[in-house]
Amino acid sequence: MYRAWADVSQVFPLITRFFWGDIDVRWFPEACLSHPRHRGFYTVRHFVEGETMPGSGVLSILDWRRRKLASEPMNGTTPLEIADALDGVATRTLAALPGLRATQATNKELRLTLGDLEAMAHLGRYYATKIRGAAALALDDKNAAIQYLQQALENWKSYSAAYTAQYTQPRLYNRVGFVDIPGLTAKVAQDVEIARQWTPGTIKDAKPARNTADQPFRK
To answer: What are the pLDDT digits (tens) for 127-161?
Structure first.
């Protein structure tokens, strides 16, 4: 139980190091979302162009792409390494769940806790495949991007099913408003269409767009 919980607890730190927003108005990882007046749902294009956490040592997709095309050293954690880490913690968590559930009997607290672990594991897999799809788009590999984003859609559906088994939807949050995980499935599906309509050469060599309101954490 401890190992599974420790693994899946890495999902939010990993994805937030890769895709940065300093407060929940700009980044609500439970739903790949920000306040509607900011960006709303973050698409695969946002992931291609997004920034990473300041001081984290994680390369953005644009930095990774530039270094890769120029055959330069990465000198940091790459987006694909973040995706692999997310996949790893999710896979280990999901593998542990059947054995843990065999011991839950009528323990409601344990049942609900394991449901949370399952939901977060599927969310980790969603972000892993979305990052891979964004990386493929950055390299103009549309076919690979479409396959990754189709898998991301399936992972989101699994997340939605596990999440709604635990919590009613939609839910009102103070900072981002109403959040409807099943309702966001249509937004997730649009990423596949973004990949299908992708024009080669869309991504230029540039630095990620930084929100001037964002500040690194300070001691």
So the answer is: 999 999 999 999 999 999 999 999 999 999 999 99
Q: Do 18 and 52 form a contact (C-beta atoms < 8 A)?
A: yes
Q: Report the distance separating Cα 207 and Cα 129, nearest Å.
A: 23
Q: Is residue 212 part of a domain?
A: no
Q: Does residue 164 lie within any of the structural domains? A: yes
Q: How far is the C-alpha of 219 from the C-alpha of 201, rounded, in Å?
A: 41
Peptide bond into 170 cis (omega under 30): yes
- Give all strands (DSSP E) within 71-204, no chain letters: 171-173, 177-179
Provide the 10 A C-beta neighbour count for residue 205: 10
Q: How many domains does the chain have?
A: 1
What tens digit of pLDDT does each residue of 74-89 get?
999 999 999 999 999 9
By residue range, what is the domain housing residue 8?
2-196
Q: Is residue 203 part of a domain?
A: no
3-state secondary structure at position 176: coil
Judge whether 143 lies within some domain.
yes
C-alpha distances in angstroms, 45 versus 7, 41, 164? 28, 11, 27
pTM of the predicted model, to two decimals?
0.92
